[in-house]
């Protein structure tokens, strides 16, 4: 007898025994598993899983069918390269699960190494439910996807028919297409599979229509019928709001938020941020004098909105409204903070808030919009007041990614001097992180260095997509101490581009590299960013010295030595002062001025175009030049009245002992561990005695963990 013959004999025996022990209608699927994620997708497909086990993913899928159902894990949202589990219960009541991989639009191909193990399956009342497990890391580097903390795309499908007509065909190569006339498919769903799910429900319910508890107050901040005429691809609209509760000695904390997006404009709203304004009482009084103008929605960073007086619209107060209260980005559902943390809203010195809505109008269509944000706040203060720290690369044309790159890295640093001045003596605890780049961003890692040694990354995503920027709740809060260094790495794919991509706000045409850390207790620390130093940046193109009128269009036009003044201007300088289009290089009129250089008097833009960026060593030299060169540092306190004073405006990306991930012992296990067809009678009877078998059956090839 072959192994699979024993398999069918044992399974049928289990069915007979279990049917005697378990009443009809009872299923083994009613176990005590604590599901950390539970989602209902389209067309009745449901999926839930447990992310707490450090070694195994345990997942349950169900669909309204008596045919097969499958779920796939994709790192890029495509079928190609996806890792697929397909399961069904055959006509004899025997369950099966098989491990496949996607090869494009064609039918999936069965893996030689099978890594999905069936726990249970039930088929009744035109519904099939399957529970299985696999290791997060299967060690099948050829065809499986390693599931980590990054963004994963779930793809799914189910059919009305089983894939094989009889058990004898199980060894036959081939499988029905994932795409067919009888197949129901699911759209992409982005998830962070191993990170904690939204820990607390929104106070107003899943649909936003519920009534919050009495201790939770709701404040909606929205624009009102703003006419976006479609003349600009990237547009920011701003509006000032006064805190809805009259000034008092009572404090309030923000405990969560969710977006309020005009439904037909979902594809046009890319980012919404709220800033707290720290304005002296004497100036704040002018809000009432010009209330109509100040509460009107205006285009941000546009001085044409002024009506002859510097206090007549919200743009005049940009320097006072700099403290970030929250930031929502496309793909996020919002966030509820942990029960021990709230972000202080009203500290008696600030009752004004500035809402900023970023429109990404790629189609340049005309829209009427009333989007905004809903805040949940309370006067029942939580144990800690938190804050937001933005780290990363300054938004400027000094963030430059060459074309034809599969993985070009940009580096930025938050220096030890900045953390010594900005972080309280006892350190801060990071409980949530949002990673941010644009269309060409593929990987982001926030590295944490202490005393020359790298600790475990605070956050990283090797499958980053700008379409899903949900806040990442830490499984374990991360402590950052004064003197620690942070390095943010962003990796970009520009294989489809033939020109440089520069830093900026346009989602499709420009790039960013930033991370926002939600932390407590709150310190005087709002921004910690860097960019390549003047000489280091231009030296990569033939000379540290440059000249030309174009210097006035970039965010710094004079070389700055250690100990000099602040080299970096506000980010809106980029929007106001250099042409931003796919056909314009900001360095067109910046020329190499280094004497005796072969590139003397050649524009930097021309030098950029002269290199063959398809050659790996050419792009690697540029990447390393900026990584190993000097960087301008920019540290900012929570408000202008309490600045961070630091001496070393010029710093470097630190050298450090890299963090060493522990070797995965699972990948060194004996080959006999896999695909073993042996399970002892004692193990089978033990499972039966726990009520784990009913008219639902097991695949004895599986490795049982429950």
Could you characterize what this model shows?
The chain is mostly beta strands and 706 residues long. The protein is built from nine helices and 39 strands.
Topology of helices and strands:
Layout: H1 3-21, E1 37-40, E2 46-50, E3 56-63, E4 69-74, E5 83-89, E6 95-101, E7 109-110, E8 117-124, E9 127-135, E10 151-159, E11 183-185, E12 189-192, E13 217-222, E14 226-228, E15 234-242, E16 253-260, E17 269-277, H2 281-289, H3 291-294, E18 298-299, E19 323-329, E20 335-336, E21 341-344, E22 352-360, E23 367-369, E24 372-378, E25 384-393, E26 400-401, E27 408-414, H4 416-422, E28 428-436, E29 441-450, E30 453-461, E31 472-480, E32 485-492, E33 501-502, E34 514-520, E35 527-532, H5 534-539, E36 546-547, H6 572-577, E37 591-592, H7 604-610, H8 616-628, E38 630-636, E39 650-652, H9 681-689
Parallel strand pairs: 21-25, 25-35
Antiparallel strand pairs: 1-2, 2-3, 3-9, 4-5, 4-10, 5-6, 6-7, 8-9, 10-11, 10-12, 13-24, 14-23, 15-18, 15-22, 16-20, 16-21, 16-24, 17-19, 17-22, 25-34, 26-33, 27-32, 28-31, 28-34, 29-30, 29-32, 35-38, 36-37, 38-39
């Amino acid at each position: 007898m072959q192994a699979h013959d024993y398999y069918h004999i044992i399974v049928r025996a289990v069915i007979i025994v279990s049917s005697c022990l378990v009443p009809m209608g009872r299923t083994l699927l009613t176990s005590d598993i604590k599901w950390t994620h539970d989602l209902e997708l389209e067309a009745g497909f449901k999926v839930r899983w447990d992310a707490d086990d450090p070694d195994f993913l345990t997942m349950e899928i169900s669909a309204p069918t008596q045919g097969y159902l499958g779920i796939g894990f994709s790192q890029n949202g495509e079928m190609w390269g996806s890792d697929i589990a397909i399961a069904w219960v055959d006509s004899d009541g025997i369950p099966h699960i098989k491990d496949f991989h996607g090869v494009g639009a064609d039918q999936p191909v069965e893996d030689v190494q099978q890594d999905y193990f069936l726990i249970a399956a039930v088929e009744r009342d035109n519904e099939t439910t399957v529970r299985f497990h696999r290791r997060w890391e299967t060690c099948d580097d050829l065809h499986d996807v390693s599931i980590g903390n990054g963004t994963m795309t779930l793809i799914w499908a189910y059919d009305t028919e089983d894939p094989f007509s009889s058990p004898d065909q199980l060894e036959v190569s081939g499988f029905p297409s994932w795409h067919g006339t009888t197949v129901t498919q699911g759209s992409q769903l982005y998830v962070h599979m191993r990170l904690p799910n939204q820990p607390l429900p929104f106070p107003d319910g899943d649909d936003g229509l519920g009534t919050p508890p009495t201790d939770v107050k709701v404040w909606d901040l929205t624009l009102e019928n703003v006419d976006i005429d479609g003349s600009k691809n990237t547009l920011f609209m701003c509006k000032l709001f006064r805190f809805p509760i009259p000034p008092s000695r009572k404090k309030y904390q923000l405990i969560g938020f969710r977006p309020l997006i005009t439904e037909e404009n979902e594809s046009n709203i890319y980012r919404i941020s709220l800033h707290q304004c720290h304005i002296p009482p004497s100036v704040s009084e002018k809000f009432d004098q010009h209330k109509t103008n100040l509460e009107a929605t205006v285009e941000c960073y546009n001085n044409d909105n002024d009506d002859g007086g510097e206090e007549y619209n919200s743009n005049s107060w940009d320097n006072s409204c700099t403290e970030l209260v929250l930031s929502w980005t496309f793909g996020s559902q919002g966030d509820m903070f942990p029960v021990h943390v709230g972000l202080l809203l009203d500290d008696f010195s600030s009752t004004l808030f500035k809402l900023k809505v970023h429109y990404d109008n790629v189609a340049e269509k005309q829209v009427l919009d009333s989007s905004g944000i809903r805040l949940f706040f309370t006067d029942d203060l939580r144990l800690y007041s938190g804050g937001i720290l933005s780290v990363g690369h300054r938004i400027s044309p000094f963030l430059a990614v060459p074309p034809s790159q599969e993985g070009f890295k940009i580096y930025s640093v938050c220096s030890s001097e900045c953390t010594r001045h900005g972080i309280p003596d006892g350190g801060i605890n990071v409980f949530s992180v949002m990673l941010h780049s644009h269309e060409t961003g593929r990987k982001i890692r926030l590295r944490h260095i202490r005393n020359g040694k790298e600790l475990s990354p605070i956050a990283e995503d090797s499958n980053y997509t700008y379409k899903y920027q949900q806040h990442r709740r830490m499984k374990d809060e991360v402590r950052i101490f004064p003197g620690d260094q942070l390095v943010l790495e962003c990796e970009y794919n520009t294989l489809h581009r033939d020109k440089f991509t520069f830093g900026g706000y346009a989602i499709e045409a420009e790039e960013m590299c930033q991370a926002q850390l939600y932390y407590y207790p709150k310190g005087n620390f709002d921004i910690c960013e860097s960019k390549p130093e003047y000489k280091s940046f231009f030296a990569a193109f033939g000379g540290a010295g440059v000249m030309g009128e174009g210097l006035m269009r970039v965010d710094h036009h004079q070389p700055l030595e250690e100990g000099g003044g602040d080299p970096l201007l506000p980010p809106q300088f980029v929007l106001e002062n250099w042409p931003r289009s796919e056909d314009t290089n900001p360095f067109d009129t910046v020329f190499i001025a280094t004497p005796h250089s072969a590139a003397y008097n050649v524009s930097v833009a021309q030098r950029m175009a002269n290199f063959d960026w398809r050659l790996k060593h050419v792009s690697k030299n540029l990447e390393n030049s900026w990584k190993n060169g000097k960087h301008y540092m920019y540290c900012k306190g929570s408000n202008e009245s309490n600045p961070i004073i630091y001496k070393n405006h010029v710093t470097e990306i630190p050298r450090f002992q890299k963090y060493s991930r522990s070797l995965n012992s699972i990948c060194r296990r004996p080959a006999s561990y896999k695909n073993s067809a042996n399970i002892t009678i004692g193990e089978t009877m033990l499972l039966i005695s726990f009520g784990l078998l009913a008219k639902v059956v097991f695949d004895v090839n599986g490795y049982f963990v429950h």
